[in-house]
Amino acid sequence: MTVRDELIDFIRSCGLEELGEINGDTPLISSGFLDSLALFTLVTWVEERIGVPLDPTTLDLVEEWATVDRLARFVEAQRVAGARPVPHPR
């Protein structure tokens, strides 16, 4: 399964069916369907995929996370950049 496919499945699991058909061009930020809780959950999902914690204040969400495809590319780029494992609290 590709990162894009995982992301689409994740969005569906968050109950964001109001977006209608979800594809690579589906807007994530400008749609208004990602409230602060959904955005926080999405940040957590990305962190799990790339293996490092993110500081959301350093991200250009409007540009880098604008659509499903852009976010999938962001995740792939972070993986290529050499992510390290995130310790999980026990």
Low-confidence stretches: 84-90
What global shape is seen?
A: globular
Task: State the name of the first-level CATH class.
Answer: Mainly Alpha
Strand content: under 5%
End-to-end separation: 28 Å
For CATH, the homologous superfamily is named as ACP-like
Under the CATH scheme, the architecture is Orthogonal Bundle
Share of helix, binned: 40-55%
- Which structural class is indicated by helix and strand composition? mainly alpha
Number of domains: 1
Mean pLDDT: 81
H/E topology pattern: HHHH
Number of beta-strand segments: 0
For the largest beta-sheet, the strand count, sense and barrel status come to: none
What is the C-alpha radius of gyration, as a whole number of Å? 13 Å
How does the SSE layout of this entry go?
Blueprint (H helix, E strand, L loop, with lengths): L2 H11 L22 H15 L10 H4 L3 H13 L10
Helix pairs in contact: 1-4
Explain this structure to me?
By secondary structure, the chain is mostly helical. The protein has a single domain, classed as ACP-like (Non-ribosomal Peptide Synthetase Peptidyl Carrier Protein, Chain A), CATH 1.10.1200. The protein is 48% helix and 0% strand. It contains four helices and no strands. The protein starts with a helix and ends in a 10-residue tail after the last helix. The C terminus is likely disordered.
What structural keywords apply?
single chain, mainly alpha, Non-ribosomal Peptide Synthetase Peptidyl Carrier Protein, Chain A, disordered C terminus, 90 residues, 48% helix, 4 helices
